[in-house]
Amino acid sequence: MHGRRVLSPVLLLGAGTGEATCGILYLAGYLRRGGIEAFVRLYDGDETEEEVSRSLEALVARVRPRLVGISLKWFHHVHRALLLARTLREIDPDIRIVVGGNTASFWWRELHAFDCIDHIILGDGERPLLALCQGEPSPPNCVTQAPDGTPRRLPLEYVQGATNSEDIYYSHFHDIFLSHQDRHAFSGWVAPGKGCGENCLYCGGARGNQKAAFGRAKPFLRSEESVRRDHQEIAQRTWQFRYDFSGSSAAFLQGTWAGVDLSRHSCMYFLWGVARMELIDALAQTFEHVHMVLDIGCFSEQQRHEQMRRGLLKPCASDQQLLELIDGCRRHKNLDIEVSGIAGLPFASAATLEEEVRLVERVMSLDCLVGYQRLEAQPGALATEHPARFDMVSEARTFTEFLEYFEQREPGDVSVPMLRFRDAALERAVQRTSEHVDALARKHEEKKQRIALNGRTRLKNTAPSTLRFKLGDWLGAHRVPAKVAQEQVTVVRSVNGTGLACAPSVNPRKFTDPTLDQGEDGKILLTTLATFEQPTTVASAVAQLGAKLKLDPHSAREVIEHLVDGRFLQPA
């Protein structure tokens, strides 16, 4: 590299708990193809600062990274991104710490003030991050420092589009994960394209912010070949695929699926716009099961049309179009529908609230699920930046206000700042309706999933995947002491993706991990699943578990109900 200081290995983290954005997987593959040894931690279950510190110490000891990249895509992860950066700085002050993503690009000025962050990448990150790792003196898209010490944002040199993104695709999944558990946490996200051409008033990633943060004036589809490489890389490593891009036509997706057998996979498709039946037909004909999420903006047609008329909402289906689409989907037995909308959008009234409830009830009567949430404050969104235009108030608007909100959350709290109506009576009415619809949606979902059990109910173990690993391979060598690393873990996945990791031989007094069912608990779960390898009545299974495990009937039924709820056991 002509005397440059190459920064490798590299560790890439997501700033939130749960599964990180799939962006770090695209980055890791790109770095690997560029000669940089890159690793990812895709899933993070740490809640307390002590857990964060302990996990990062183990990761740093395992990877010994020269650079750590933190993906700050979502605004509600800003506090955690700073926590990760500060903790890494304390663990090893020599590690270069880089942040990037939508939120990092939006708040680059504020983030530059934190001395635990060395670099901020704006917009698309693949080429800039590789340039940093290769020691280039002037990497593109990076915030620089003016002579007086203030941050300086140079014009974006690297902007991905339809003609220069062929080298962005998934690769090296065999190499980038540090544990089988982390690889199994991957939910199958594929990005057929990038960007957004709409300016919805509630969204921080709308067209205007895309142009400002990424330099991208309009969305684009990636090349069929690069998306096909995604499918080829992950088809044998995931049980489902997830998409959320409105521009993908049936013909485009079918081209990206060519030569890849997806007939045993599930698919979840988040459709931003009005769905076309040929797309739905293609999904249903390709995948074993499809869950289609249709976003209609809000459940009041009057309110929806008013926002579209003002250019404040993407094109959404009318109620009649939605109902016709649902009716057309009925011919596919392997497809179910969820209709999603936001409550508390501007121009609400007593009449629109009544419309919301009527459409929700109609949709549920057609056996569709309902996704419903109140309007949240997103940095950069029109409604957040100018709430007074809509006679609303925002619980947070500035970087400091958002950061303080998230700093004060208790571990496990996933709340976000909200936008509320200035009119107190209207706000109370909107909140009452929201709570009522939430209750209806929960009751409907529980009813759809409930399986009535009695002693004569015949059940069968329908788990489509049962795998066995050594404990050190499953959790990762950096998390498991040598004395138990060779113990066996049985990993079971249900039909809806729920997972069990059972380690009956691992004594909790020697080693414990919250993601494992250990000792007697693990033995009970695996024995119960084995009891239902062939169709068996609940009464017979309760008797067998009593004889094999000395479980009393009440406890045996509780275990069976737990496995039914997780969809490991289904009616025979």
From TrEMBL:
Pfam families registered for this protein in UniProt: B12-binding
CC cofactor: [4Fe-4S] cluster
Record domain B12-binding: where: 2-143
Protein known as: Cobalamin-binding protein
Keyword Transcription: no
Biological source species: Archangium minus
Keywords per UniProt: Iron, Iron-sulfur, Metal-binding, S-adenosyl-L-methionine
InterPro entries in UniProt: BchE-like (IPR051198), Cobalamin-bd (IPR006158), Cobalamin-bd_sf (IPR036724), Elp3/MiaA/NifB-like_rSAM (IPR006638), rSAM (IPR007197)
